[in-house]
Structures are given as C-alpha cells and as structure tokens.
C-alpha cells in the first residue's frame, strides 16, 4: 500500500512541465525566473497548476476588459468610427437596446421593432442575455448599456474560470497546457465581443467529462452547449467515428441521447410557446448574407460579382460534409487511433473555414480545442499572431469604411490580406494536427507513451474496425503514462528520459 508521500511524489513526477519539453515555453519562462522547479511541485504550495491557470486566465480576461475602456467611457456612444479605431467594439451594449432588453421585451416571445422581428440567438444564449438584463440597474440609456456590458463581463468571467479549470484538468498529466488558453492574446481581445464564452465553457466541461469516461455527462453538456451555439454538436461526429473504430457503441449512444435530451429540455418550452421566435436563429443563419472574415467575402470583393446566399449555403454544407467525411476516413485509416481532441479541433475548424462568416470571436471556439489537440507553444503562437492581426484588421477596415472622405484605416485590399492571413493561420494548425495523426510519433501528448489522455473510454482501447493497414491496438497501453519513464527535452533540444 503506497504511502501518501509516495503518492504525492508519483503525482509530482507524472505532471508534465512544458518548460522542460517545449523550447518556446522554456525561453518565455525566463521572464519569470526560468524553468519550473521545486516551487511548482504538487503539494508544495496552496496554488496548484489548475489554480494558477485559472488565476492567469481571469487576469487576462481583466486585461481584455481594460482594452475596452475607450469604448466603455465614450466610443460606443459617439458614432461607429471611434469604437473601430480603438479596436474595442462589442455587440453587448448595442444589442441591449437593439434587441429590446432596455424596453423589457421578453426574448423569443415579444416581437422586436424593425426587420429583425425576434432575437437571433439560440435559446440558452438568450436566457444568459435576459439574466444579465435583470441585473442591469436603471439610469440613462448610456448608463444602462455600460452596466449591461459590465454585468455580462462578470458572467463571462465566470465562464472563463470554468473554461480554464476544465482545460487544465482534461489532460491529467498536462495541467500546465491550460496556460496556452489563459495567455492566448486573441482570447483576451475577443472575450467580451459577444456571448460565445458560454458555449465555449460548456464545451470544455463536456470535454472534461469525456476524459473522465462519463459519456452521459458529456452528452448533457454538449446538448446544453449546442443550445447556446451551434458548433458544439459537431463534436458528436468525432465521438461517433472513434467509438466506431474502438467498438464503443454503448458509450456513444448514451452520449447522443444525453445531448438530445438536454437540448430538448432547454428548447422545447420556447419551441412550443414561441415557435416563431425560436426558429429565428435558424432562419437567420440560412438567410444571412456573406459576411466579415470569410473567404467568400474575399471572392466577392475581388471579382465584384455577388454570390447568391442559397449557392453559398449549398456549397458550404457540401464542403463541410465532404471534409468531415475525409476526417472520418483519416480516423479509420490512421496508424493509431487519433486522439479525441485532435478530431474535435479539425471538425470545428472545418465548419468555420467554409462558413460564410468568420467573426473575430469565433477564435474562442478553437482555442481550447487547439490547446488539447496540439499543446505546442510555437504552433499555437503562430496561429495566435495571425488571429491578432485579423482582429486589428477588421476594426481598421470598418474604420476605413465609416470615415468617409478621410479614409482613415485599412483599405479593402489590406483587409483581404488580413482575412487570408487568419485563414492560413487556422489551416496551418489543421495541417500540423493532421501530421500528428499520420505520424503519431510527432504528437507531443503521446511522446511519453500515452494513448489518448482526453479520450476517456477510448484511452488504451483496442481497435475493432480499421481501414487499410491501421494498427489494431495501441502500441502502448495508456497505463504506461502513469508508470513509464517521463520524456523531457534536454538543453540541446534532444529528448531525454528521467
């Protein structure tokens, strides 16, 4: 029977420290005293890796709020141009008035003035918005909009803490990877543009439950996340094909039923009592024209020819289905069964890349999935640099279009370059994830002999269905990750074992 001290030492040695494996993390750590050492050991201080990640994430969120100060103080209320030149735009204060919350209208049930008619967000996001409106104090309309943004920011900060904790706990041996989420510059810049963090936090919690072999809890959280934003439902696709390869049909069925049940619990009351308001999100998504950030916009601007919305919808849908089918074939033919996080990142990235809109806050969907799929600082920072450039590019372009004859900002050609840059950044990250799948020895998560630390019931499972010459079982069982040698990087950049 191992003693408590032995258990503590084992846990300490089993935790992977990025500063000992990743040259970029090691170099960056010099700003705070160098590589992690004795002070980071589990149990040596009250601050665990998960706690440290959560605190850093909250601190970065707060810095993102500070970045919005010019808009909070005046730019939101003095015309469109100022909020773009200061790159501090947010939908939240504008939709407080624009979607009837200032007048006390009930989302989905009360018709809005103007062309929008009803709130165009999924039900759980509408509930989130309404709860924030209940806590917004009275005053002038400007004071109410400021307060509404602050209340929402406080609620989204809670989502940030949940997100950070879930990502840090998903890979038991790699809690410090959560710092990639916490320190992501695009996260701080886009966190309070819209309400996406609600769905992102629920999805991260679902990923944590899957990693703990709790398919029902995973399904319930995926259903709730889908009730807040559409993209989380795509994670059922990777679960399906991975469970197919591993023969885990019962677990997949439980997850799917849990997702359907929780989604219905949230949506059914509105579907029954306010059907017109409920379907607005879906009709708006179909009728929405080509918008910012997509390659479709580049095509229309370069050619000068409009593209019918129906054509874009059809092509986007077919491209999404085709690319997801290709990911499924890759999963069944890969030399080792891919990790769940790898496929989750790929399918969500595909959905965004072919979509007719790629809003700057959509990067929030990908950040936690990218960290779990490819926890490599160099690749992550390359992608983040592209996203930060696009974040600045879209606001400078909007400043240009609203400045009249002054032409202050980024012209159309410059904005097109920014779009291409952030699309290429996402494609680059997709490429290295696909390479890791085809060459599993390059996967930093599997370097220590692990199979799929976030795979739950899939971790260490043998294959029952493969295509081609794929392996029929993992080269090493996942238990090796707990007992085998830990591989670290030496100062010369070569792997060494301790």
From TrEMBL:
Task: Indicate what this protein is called per its UniProt record.
Answer: Glycosyltransferase 87 family protein
The segment annotated Disordered runs over 1-20
Enumerate the UniProt keywords alphabetically. Answer: Cell membrane, Membrane, Transferase, Transmembrane, Transmembrane helix
Which compartment or compartments is the protein found in? Cell membrane
Question: Species name for this entry?
Answer: Streptomyces poriferorum
How would you describe this protein's topology in the membrane?
A: Multi-pass membrane protein
Domain of life of the native organism = Bacteria
Coiled-coil blocks: none
Q: Which InterPro entries match?
A: GT87, UCP010361
- Biased region (Basic and acidic residues) positions are 7-20
Family of this protein = Belongs to the glycosyltransferase 87 family.
